[in-house]
TrEMBL record:
It comes from the Bacteria. It holds the Pfam family Hydrolase_4. This is Lysophospholipase. Residues 84-337 form the Serine aminopeptidase S33 domain. It comes from Bifidobacterium callitrichidarum.
Amino acid sequence: MQVTMIDERTYAQTMTDMVVPALEQCRTEGWFAPATAERAAGLEPLVGDVIGDSGSHPGQLHYLCYDAAKFDAIREEGATATFRGAVVISHGFTEFAEKYDELVWYFLLAGYSVCVLDHRGHGKSARNVENRCMVWIDDWRRYVVDLAAFAQTIGQQYAAGMPLNLFCHSMGGGIGAAVLEQYPTLFDKAVLSAPMIAPATGMPLGVARVLVGVLCKLGFSHKRVFGQGDFTPEFSMKGNEGASEARERWYFKLRCENPEYQTYCAAFEWVRQALKLNRAILSPSACSEVETPILLFQSGRDIWVLNKPQNRFVELVKDGGGEATIVRFPESRHEIFSMPNSTFRPYLEQILKFYDDPMIASASY
């Protein structure tokens, strides 16, 4: 479908004056209790948050949902007014639900309700470390169980019998890939945007596994990874050269205004679990379980995740009888949705075409 993109020259004004107010009129904020699903999966629930909204919602996960019917009632220009189902968004490392407001806006215009879960340790969700800037997780399977349970309940509620689709980015893409393997009939279609099938560690993955494993055993599990720092309120495009500065400044503004959004570095245990997730995802037997058609977007200038494991994942899914296609943006940075409109537009149009077209799963781009 034809998409009218937000003009980057007036980006902040448009977000402030039009997009955010419209989203607020159709948004529901909620808290999801994952304990029952985690126990069923053999995981002991984590409670007793160190920071976050532990007083009112101990151990719970924060989410934002956007109702397509309420959005259509606003009568925004460009809205299809045709309900197509729901999209569950699985965000990336150190991100938060509100960062996806622009993408949510486009999904709503296209007729989709949207549900965004703050993964554990992110945004306003429960976390178990003292440093609000650091992300820690004890077991990668917790991410997977939580996302699946959220989609099975809140996501299906918003889909209302129509297709339930998945959009995930980076770390959220690794989590999403594992969900597709373990819950093969949960989603109708899935977009994996620069997914963390394997993180970029600066060294061979095997060496990283051994090193991080030793450090965690030596008591560094809750320590910040060497060379990483806490969030500081100083804007910079370093590492994001070529991205849309207007979008990057908007995300930065959100971080500055919300202490809960200032996650910025990894604990050693998070890295250890990311590497365990990588090994689990690329199991041929796990990949053969995937039934959901997948569209995987790859960033040619990615410095955060590795491209070759993404290729391997798609190969294994196809070898197992599944449907998976790679679309590569050679000049894009890791966050394709943070690039200028000249890149973001074709990316978004392909996502919407994939979701909308019942025959697109067997097509190539």
